[in-house]
UniProtKB/TrEMBL annotation:
PANTHER family per record: ALCOHOL DEHYDROGENASE
Pfam family, one: adh_short
Keyword Oxidoreductase: yes
InterPro entries documented for this protein: NAD(P)-bd_dom_sf, Sc_DH/Rdtase_CS, SDR_fam
Keywords, in A-Z order: Oxidoreductase
GO molecular function, one term: oxidoreductase activity
Record's protein name: SDR family oxidoreductase
Family the UniProt entry places it in: Belongs to the short-chain dehydrogenases/reductases (SDR) family.
Length: 237
């Protein structure tokens, strides 16, 4: 049966680079994003560049549990087995915890988009991986998962939690022969940095992260990259 590569948030930045890297390897990709327009543009462009390899898309906001379940069902209905799951969906809001709304709304938004999106999709697709005793799960964490930034606020809290969940999954899934990898990239030239008064050379490229994910996936089944910490050559920004 053909393999499926599932990449959440695949229309921009690191997610898009990951989608393209697996398409280059001739593997079918399933992705989602909130914008149906962006997904249509992605499908059109990649369909021309990789006409022999299909890309399946669904408009969904994975910070919403109902949309996450709908995306999982969409994947399940496709022909093929999920070989790789890349949980890339995320969002960033700067600020200090002490300055955030007292109602906790900012923390809840950051948890929903950065943690629950990955939790819900993973939980939905995991039973079949366990039954097959095969698969590789990547979690797009961040250097903010291990370093507290004073302007990171609830984003840091959510990314720390995602890193913790990744460690738990790694421990639980060893006996099921499923690999789990935490990816912790520093400053990468994506939409999150639009407007920054810094040269492009100061950032990593999304393709750098995608190539590292593909390399970790390509190892023999006897090896796993448990976590991969990446920073710009000149250090954090």
């Amino acid at each position: 049966m053909q393999k499926l590569i599932v990449v959440t948030g695949g229309t921009k930045g690191i997610g898009r680079a990951v989608v393209e890297r697996f398409l280059q390897a001739g593997m079918r990709v399933v992705t989602c994003a909130r914008s149906a327009t962006d997904l249509l543009a992605l499908s059109s462009e990649l369909g021309q560049r990789y006409p022999e390899t299909p890309v399946y898309t669904l408009a969904a906001d994975l910070s919403q549990a109902d949309d996450a379940r709908r995306f999982v069902e969409f994947v399940r209905e496709l022909e093929g087995e999920v070989e790789v799951l890349v949980n890339n969906t995320g969002g960033f809001e700067p600020g200090r915890l002490q300055d955030e709304p007292a109602d906790g709304s900012q923390l809840r938004r950051m948890i929903d988009v950065n943690l629950y999106s990955a939790y819900d999709v993973t939980q939905g697709l995991l039973p079949e991986m366990i039954a097959r005793r095969h698969g590789h799960i990547f979690m797009l964490c961040s250097t903010a998962s291990i370093t507290a930034y004073t302007n990171g606020g609830s984003y840091c809290v959510a990314k720390f939690a995602l890193y913790g969940m990744t460690k738990v999954l790694r421990a639980e899934l060893q006996e099921h022969n499923i690999r789990v990898t935490a990816i912790l990239p520093g400053a990468t030239l994506t939409a999150s940095w639009e407007g920054a008064d810094l040269p492009a050379e100061r950032f990593m490229r999304p393709q750098d992260v995608a190539e590292s994910i593909f390399a970790a996936y390509s190892l023999s089944p006897q090896a796993v990259v448990e976590e991969l910490l990446m920073r710009p050559q000149l250090g954090d920004i």
